[in-house]
Amino acid sequence: MDIKFLFLKLFWKKLTLIDQENAVKTKNNGCPKCGSPLHVANYDRLPRGGPNFLIDQKILRFSLCCSKAGCRRRVMPPSVRFLGRNIYWGAIFLIASIMKKKLNSLQSKATENIFAISRQTLQRWGHFWKNKFPKSRFWKRSKGLFSEMISVFPKGLFDFYHKFNKSTESTVIALLKFLSDLKLSDFSS
Q: Rounded to two decimals, what is the model's pTM?
């Protein structure tokens, strides 16, 4: 798997533009609770695991807040850069999880070094993909969209999307768009 694109600023700019478009669409829809206009309420994130040019940079997480007094509900637009409340970049979470699945232990150590991710974190992500994701409300709602049975995550999702995309980069972007609606509440019983 060619992952050179992860180290290019253009890739991260594309993800930012997708997130900006999602924020505009969400803002235009108004508050999902009361229908009032939404105000911008962006905040800084300091994600982990990215290329050197992103380390220690504060990155805006696009966020909105209802303008109506008494509601003031926070609305989080879907994000391809941040999956849920994960402190790692979504693309890194995805790629490292795929690579961890198919690499032997020697290469797994290299993956830890490339992305600056501990072995415990990679194991936690493996547990998420193996045990939590298949049981999530998100996957139960979404699996009917696929023309074939997918049982190995995230590799099976990647392989499915790769059939329709010419490059690893475009496959990752398409998969991140699919996963962008994943929420913490999808994992509650």
A: 0.89
